[in-house]
Amino acid sequence: MNFKDTLKINSKNHLEIGGVDTVELVNKYSTPLYVMDESYIRSVCRAYKETIAREYGYGNCAYASKAFSCAAIYKVMKEEGMCIDVVSGGEIYTALKAGFDLKNAYFHGNNKLESELELAISNNIGTIVVDNPYEVEMIDEIAKKYNKVQEVLIRSNPGVEAHTHKFIQTANIDSKFGFSIKNGDALNVIKLIKSKANVAFKGLHCHIGSQIFDKNAFKLAVEVMTDYVKKLNDEEGIEVNELNFGGGFAVHYTEEDPKYNVEQYCEYVETLVKALNEAIATKGIKKPYFMIEPGRSIVGEAGITLYSVGNIKDIKGVKKYLAINGGMYDNIRPALYEAKYEALLANRANDKKEEVVTIAGKCCESGDIIIKDIELPKANRGDIIAVMTTGAYCYSMASNYNRNTLPPVVFVRDGKSGIAVKGQTYEDIVRNDIVDVKMD
Ligand SMILES: Cc1ncc(COP(=O)(O)O)c(C=O)c1O
Question: How many domains does the chain have?
Answer without folding.
Answer: 2
